[in-house]
Amino acid sequence: MSEIFDVAIIGAGPGGYVAAIRCAQLGLNTVCIDEWKNAKGKPSLGGTCLNVGCIPSKALLESSEKYFQLKHKLSAHGITAEQVSVDVPVMIARKDKIVTTFTAGITSLFKKNRVKSMHGRGTLLKREESADDWQIKIDDNGDTEIVRAKHVIIATGSVPRSLPFAPIDNNLILDNVGALALTEAPKRLGVIGAGVIGLEMGSVWRRLGSDVAILEAMPGFLMAADEQIAKEAKNIFTKEPGLQINTGVTIKVVEVTNNVVTVRYSDANNQEQVLEVDKLIVAVGRIPNTAGLGVNENGLLLDERGFVVVDQYCRSNLHNVYAVGDVVRGPMLAHKASEEGVTVAEMIAQIEKKSQTSQNEAVDFNMVPWVIYTAPEIAWVGKNEQELRAAGIAYKAGQFPFIANGRARAMGETSGFIKVLADEKTDRVLGVHMIGPHVSELISEAVMAMKFSASSEDIACIVHAHPSLSEVLHEAALGADKRALHI
Questions:
Q1: What is the pLDDT of residue 359?
Q2: Which of 67, 244, 317, 353 holds its CA 20 to 30 A away from the CA of 310?
Q3: Cα(266)–Cα(259) distance, rounded to whole angstroms?
């Protein structure tokens, strides 16, 4: 009889590989199955996030920002350079090297923790009611193998949502993969979708010299964010030349002729418009990746949007089958997926009596930070003002601008502000919203404060280093009681 693993994980993205490592740390015999291949056709762990998402996009954002600063901002510091140019292939090669280093790092972590890694598409085979374990077929280009496991964690992530009238060829019409692999900055770039991916990719190529036009179907800009943050972001982004943001758009036709992509659409005023670009990025969101999992064969319950239905502890309707990350409800964020992976691993260890105490708890989505790595960055955690008003929750707000902060002035990055929202009666922090320099790092203090049920007074009483960007959060917390010191 073949070996029976304690846990089999399908998918090696941030949810899957973290779950695998934690399972192994807890003494569970673990196998992780993943089908991802890199551009050279080699197995590559890390999922979308590491291979064609979070990590490579941040590498390009960093490179493009340095180029933009040298071209347009550093003269204010007395730093000038002549004949500044950008070598996009070198930039792409640097990005690829970072990705390769991290994927190899996951392989090393698997070896260190004795996680068995297998390449191929994993499919749950139909399970007999009397069976004590699951059988998973692994298909690697026609070569099949079957493994058995007591518990299965589905961590297959998500795939880009497609538009039937704009088929992806990653030559002229691109998804996130194609957008990260361009070898030169297109003169004219169109982006359908003003979400995180659309804004970040638009930011990269605008900084490198492209004229970028973003078309968004929603009536407002960044409607998931606090409306004041969204308004500030749009004002800042459109102030710089080379970026247009159009909301309330309805795409009618996308045509490709003579290496030119033509987008015909109606604008917010129902006026017909035409956009001609050299490249078009389609970034209209992502959908859960459940293809080939054996959903129908086993009766795995999906909701109306195609997500695997799970409870707060990520348990599906099937015995000992769990699902984490983008394939289930909640924000499609890598750090949310990782936390769910840890939660499930610790729960399985308790079931298998590998752990004497339960350390796991359900992931609280209200405590999950959001970050958009534009320039300036945008970050938030908790409720925004429109959500609090809709819920009838009485609150108070404190706000402080980066322009009044000494460190921000020294950096020459003074756009934006931080806002703290606190319960009017208890003063407990309900949400923190930021737009400005390095707020992707500053948001963690807000998450920690909310996790420990801090009040705005608690943040206000903490000594923050001077001069530092974190003082903006300190002043915003003081402002919740109308006692900010430097404005």
A1: 61
A2: 353
A3: 23
CA 234 – CA 244 distance, rounded (Å): 10
Secondary structure of residue 281 in the 3-state scheme: strand
* Among the listed residues 137, 251, 151, 143, the one whose alpha carbon sits nearest the alpha carbon of residue 191: 251
3-state helix, strand, coil in the chain (%, to 5): 35, 25, 40
Secondary structure (DSSP) of 225-245: S-HHHHHHHHHHHHHSTTEEE
All CATH 3.30.390.30 domain ranges of the chain, comma separated, are 376-479
Average pLDDT over residues 109-130: 94
Q: How confident is the model at residue 353 (pLDDT cuts 50, 70, 90)?
A: confident
The upper half-sphere exposure of residue 136, i.e. CA atoms within 13 Å in the direction of its Cβ, equals 33
Please give the backbone phi and psi of residue 101, each rounded to the nearest 5 degrees, phi first.
-60, -45
Residue 77 is predicted with a pLDDT of: 95
Using CA atoms, how far apart are residues 473 and 381, in angstroms rounded to an integer?
A: 13
Q: 3.50.30.40, 3.30.450.20, 3.30.390.30, 3.40.190.150: which CATH number matches 376-479? A: 3.30.390.30
Radius of gyration from C-alpha coordinates of the chain:
24
> What's the pLDDT at 336?
98
The CATH number corresponding to 4-160+287-351 among 3.50.50.60, 3.40.50.300, 3.30.200.20, 2.60.40.1930 equals 3.50.50.60
- The catalytically annotated residue of 72, 77, 466, 486 is 466
User: Mean per-residue pLDDT for 421-443?
Assistant: 98
Looking at the predicted structure, is the pLDDT value of residue 128 above 90? no
Q: Is residue 358 predicted with pLDDT exceeding 60?
A: no
Strands of 260-266's sheet, edge to edge? Answer: 250-257, 260-266, 272-277
- Evaluate whether the domain defined by 173-284 bears CATH number 3.50.50.60: yes
Residues of the chain with CATH 3.50.50.60: 4-160+287-351, 173-284
Catalytic site includes residue 486: no
Contacts of 127 by beta carbon, 8 Å cutoff, 6+ apart: 134, 135, 298, 318, 319
Gap between the Cα atoms of 251 and 441, Å rounded: 37
pLDDT of residue 357: 59
The lowest-confidence range among 2-6, 63-67, 440-444 is: 2-6
* Segment 300-317, tens digit of pLDDT: 999 999 999 999 999 999
